Amino acid sequence: MKTIDIDQPGFFAKHQVGDEAAGFYAAQGYLVVHDAVSPAEIQELRDEAVAICRQERGEMKIHETHEQEMPPLEELRTLPDDEAIRHFLCIHFPHKISSVMQGYLAHPVVVDVLTRVISPNVKAMQSMLFVKSAGKPGQAWHQDEDYIPTRDRSLAGAWIALDDAVIENGCLWVIPGSQRPGILWPQYPHDDRKYDCAQMSYDFPYSDADAVPVEVPAGAIVFFNGYLLHKSEPNTQTSGYRRALVNHYMSAESLLPWHGSTGPAATADTRDIVMVAGTDPYAWKGIADTATAGIRPAGEGGCGDGRVDLYTHRQNLEDAAKA
Ligand SMILES: O=C(O)CCC(=O)C(=O)O
After folding, report:
1. Where are the alpha helices (DSSP H) in the chain?
2. How many angstroms separate the Cα of 1 from the Cα of each of 40, 168, 218, 233, 243?
3. 37 lies in which domain range?
4. Tally of domains in the chain
5. How far is the CA of 321 from the centre of ligand 1 (A)?
6. Residue 116: what pLDDT?
């Protein structure tokens, strides 16, 4: 097993979380709390991941264009645990079907950090359970605010490592400080099969030399800003997984013009949220239940939506501008 250095800038023990950690997050856009989640909690989350993948917590769908990626449910349920979860890259919104996953939204270390770096009032709106078994692809460079727009740039991910995450099994990579300009860089539907079907950011003023791998031991939590450019590479190991539960949060003061919200952009506000700290200034709106748990395609059979390389994408943009 690779030795992971926890004695490096941006890494803190639980009891060290304070102004220095908050300052590192503000400057660099991320921070790591090691030993944040206990071995018993990791085991609970791993066991729950198996139950979710076996669809014992409820059936989950993969989009019909990607159905070939998954064995039929009846077959999945007959497989040994290790083999059953091997088919999964990621499950979206596991907290919508699992009370265990829902409970971890308000993990004490998460609440401690986020109330320092976001606001005393924090709400969660999304969870993703990455299994990322050996051979599964990574996620191309992106910023999470491309997908979950806040109005005050408060989006933050809390990425709980359920395995040691290292370069070889597809740990996170970040571009420190890239959140600072507060710009959402363009994205295109890349055709790079190292990555899944989510779009890739480009034309940002950083190079791969600016990127750092965030190698962390199981039990660490990586916190990262919604404007931080980040990616993960494929799991190139021949067995095992790189499991992580990543939950997303924002200030409760901001509206959330996201899916499930209706009406003018200025007042759109997804209310399928879970308060994890403080008070909700919009409690009078009530809580909605709009998101459903689902299986995220790995894109192993292609993405089915006209993927292109960057050169062709630029040509397409030029052609569209001329038309
Ligand atoms: O865990 C990964 O591989 C990618 C996670 C990610 O990109 C995210 O949570 O936004």
Report:
1. 19-28, 39-53, 73-78, 81-86, 99-104, 108-117, 310-322
2. 21, 11, 12, 19, 16
3. 11-322
4. 1
5. 33
6. 98
**Atom 2 (ligand 1) nearest CA:** 232
Is 2 contained in some domain?
no
In a domain, 292, yes or no: yes
| Cβ–Cβ < 8 Å for 82, 215 | no
- List all residues whose CB is within 6 A of at least one atom of ligand 1: 128, 130, 138-139, 144, 157, 172, 230, 232, 244, 246
Separation of 67 CA from ligand 1 center, angstroms?
Answer: 22
Residue 269 lies in a domain: yes
pLDDT tens for 239-259 read: 999 999 999 999 999 999 998
pLDDT tens string 195-225: 999 999 999 999 999 999 999 999 999 999 9
- Domain assignment present for residue 19? The answer is yes
For the stretch 287-305, pLDDT in tens is 999 999 999 999 988 898 8
Q: Is residue 1's pLDDT more than 80?
A: no
Q: The domain that contains 46 carries what CATH number?
A: 2.60.120.620
Q: Are 150 and 269 in contact (CB under 8 A)?
A: no
Contact between 98 and 57 (Cβ < 8 Å): yes
CA 305 to chain centre: 23
Positions of E strands within the chain: 11-12, 30-33, 61-62, 90-92, 122-130, 139-142, 156-161, 172-174, 187-188, 200-201, 212-214, 221-225, 230-232, 244-251, 274-277, 294-296
